[in-house]
Amino acid sequence: MKAVRFRLFAIAATLCTLLAACGSGGGSKGAGSDKGSNTDLVAETASYDVATGGPERFILGLLTKDQRQVSFGTVQVRFCYLGTAQGAQPCKPGVSQTASFLPVPGSPPGPSKSTPEILGPTQTKGVYGTASSFDKAGFWRAEVTADVGGKSRSATTDFQVLDHHKVLAPGDAAPPLQNLTMSTPGAAPAAIDSRASAGGLVPDQDLHQSTVAAALAAHRPIVVVFATPVYCQSRFCGPTTDAVEALAQKYADRATFIHVEIWADYSKQQLNPGLDQWIGDNEPWVYFIGADGKIVDRWDNVADTAALETTLQKLPVIGKA
Length: 321
What we know:
The protein is of the alpha+beta class. The chain contains six helices and 15 strands.
């Protein structure tokens, strides 16, 4: 689990820059503006854990080179296999797939657009997602084409596909995690939710009433978000946790909703135990677990609120605990 520390500085920092989520970022131009020489696109893989098989969700972010966010509409993505070594020979992309825009929860709302648009740093942020299957482990390339400002533009991003998922995946049995709750003896409030570190009060207390183990034993469907709202440098953890809390308020009869904090003590760099197989080196993650204890679906990094709700609605309706 040591690698989680690197997440806060390397992986999250990369996505943070790409998606203009940390600070003001670049691009003082207004929405739809496209003046100047920095007009080519930059793509970055936003998926945390890609493996052979599928289909599974693949997400990527798009920016202009001067770091203005590309949002809305759809883009076309073609995948090609590069080989087992990074920097292998170029390859011929395959069939084009449509990737749809997924807004970051809590992002300022914007009008629905049918085509991608260049936005300023304070406007709607998100990624583009599509369902993909990969038949070989190794390195792959995604070639992205987008119609932006009436001009077809392209970018590529390379990523690794593993033989097997490095964290829990749909079909796996959910481990009986004994996460901290409001009733855990001696648990520090900030270890239950990092947002409690300032005033000592745990927010969203209904997300901290049950352990995953207890919900599994009760044969309850579960929605569990692994996130550190204060220390997550991509700044997606807080909005994602808020999105799960909103679902908990609306669908309390359908599932047990749980938030698991990453850090037991951030100042001492101590992590809460038992998280390796759930999150690997990255967060946030949202898992959907059926009443049979099997993982039904999972959402990494950017968890679109509407898509989360659609996934939740597929879980069976059950009585409140």
